[in-house]
Amino acid sequence: MLVDISLGVIALAALVLAVWEGVMERRHNRLSVAPRLTIRLHAGDSLGMLGCTVSNEGLGPAIVTNCLIKVDGKAMENKGDDGWNAALGNAKAPR
């Protein structure tokens, strides 16, 4: 009788451990394929160009739904390729 109860407890513990391990593995897999967006600022090269590069360093897909450029706290309009020129034209010169 004691052996039967011990076997039941061990089997139940093994089942709980297997379920817990599956939950943790699913959580790990979700985190490992998450997108990781990186923004690199380019403050001028040999051509005098300014800008930034956004890249996805993660394995999962990144969906960008909005992008906003602010200069001195003021949001700039989306003017396509002229947006950067407008942003730089409105920027205050450093003192």
Radius of gyration, taken over Cα atoms and rounded to an integer in Å:
27 Å
Largest sheet: 2 strands, antiparallel
Give the ordered list of helices and strands: HEEEEH
Number of DSSP-assigned strands: 4
- Tally of helical runs: 2
Strands of the largest sheet, in order across it?
1-2
* Approximate strand percentage: 15-25%
Which whole number gives the mean pLDDT? Answer: 81
Helix content: 40-55%
**Count of discrete structural domains:** 3
Distance between the termini: 87 Å
Question: How would you describe this protein?
Answer:
The chain is of the alpha+beta class and 95 residues long. The protein is built from 2 helices and 4 strands. Helix content is 41%, strand content 17%. It has helices at 2-32, 83-90; strands at residues 37-42, 51-56, 70-71, 74-75. The N and C termini lie far apart (87 Å). The longest helix is centred in the N-terminal third of the chain and has 31 residues, at 2-32. The relative contact order is 0.10.
Short description:
The protein is an alpha+beta fold. It has two helices and four strands. A two-stranded antiparallel ribbon has the order 1-2. A two-stranded antiparallel sheet has the order 3-4.
Which short descriptors sum up this protein?
95 residues; alpha+beta; two-stranded antiparallel sheet; 17% strand; rod-shaped
What is this structure's SSE topology?
Elements: H1 2-32, E1 37-42, E2 51-56, E3 70-71, E4 74-75, H2 83-90
Antiparallel strand pairs: 1-2, 3-4
